[in-house]
Specification:
- The protein is mainly beta.
- It contains one helix and 20 strands.
- Strands 12, 15, 16, 18, 19 and 20 form a six-stranded mixed sheet that branches.
- It is elongated and about 85 Å long.
């Protein structure tokens, strides 16, 4: 019997094996129709005290554990797992077993990007994947206007809003996107870190900034308040 009835293309994160049959590593049934199918193979990862997730994204400040599981779960013990780092067609075996712990801050060649799953007869399938190493962006608390600032003008006056965001991954192709929230209304300003906004009535207003990177990690600052004094009304 062949564990893998037919070949499929590797999918990112969750690999569904449809029509795949387990090779004789279970008690051999008398009827081929009794063979238990392997419904899926899932690749998951966790870091710190978090739970396993199929979102293969980690930060570089702590070790991470990657895990392969199969459905139905009872077939897990009958399969062999090997984790590899592959580059330009050359495979380097990193670990045998259903899970592997690695350090994202170390060499890229220590991070797995390929998994093989085999039965006791040597039939196997290969799955390629990518682990994203990402540092979350950080917003500076320094802004214009500052908290408690007083701005003078009219509804037509365009007041400057400016802020600063940082990300260690920018040199590696990451991009930061910003939202300026004023009085509970959000404005998507993209990669800009300064804009001018008009239309303010006299009185107290609030704002904050939200930043997100390409991989969904984000940061924000606490709401800040400012006051607008209408110079026309003051006259």
């Amino acid at each position: 019997m062949n564990l893998f009835y037919r070949s499929i293309f590797p999918l990112f994160v969750t690999i569904a094996l449809l029509g795949v049959f387990l090779a004789g590593c279970l008690d051999a049934p008398s009827d081929p129709d009794d063979l238990q199918p392997v419904e899926s193979v899932n690749i998951k990862i966790k870091q710190d005290k978090g739970n396993y997730s199929t979102d293969l994204k980690v930060h570089p400040s702590d070790s991470a554990t990657i895990l392969a599981t199969v459905e139905p779960e009872k077939l897990q013990k009958d399969l062999s797992f090997k984790w590899y780092y592959t580059f330009e067609g050359k495979d380097s075996l990193l670990q045998k077993g259903e899970q592997f712990t690695f350090y994202p801050s170390r060499s890229e060649s220590a991070i797995p990007n390929k998994l093989t799953v085999s039965d006791k007869e040597g039939n196997k399938q290969t799955y390629e994947f990518s682990v994203i190493i990402n540092t979350a962006p950080v917003l500076s608390d320094s802004t214009i206007p500052v908290n408690g600032d007083t701005l003078y003008g009219t509804k037509e006056s365009a007041f400057l809003f400016e802020w600063y965001s940082l990300d260690m991954d920018l040199a590696n192709g990451d991009t930061l996107f910003h939202i300026l929230e004023i009085d509970s209304t959000q404005y998507d300003v993209g990669t800009l870190m300064q804009v001018k906004q008009s239309g303010f009535k006299a009185g107290k207003h609030s704002f904050r900034i939200i930043v997100r990177d390409l991989y969904g990690d984000s940061d924000t600052i606490a709401y800040k308040s400012f006051y607008v004094v209408d110079t026309l009304e003051a006259k």
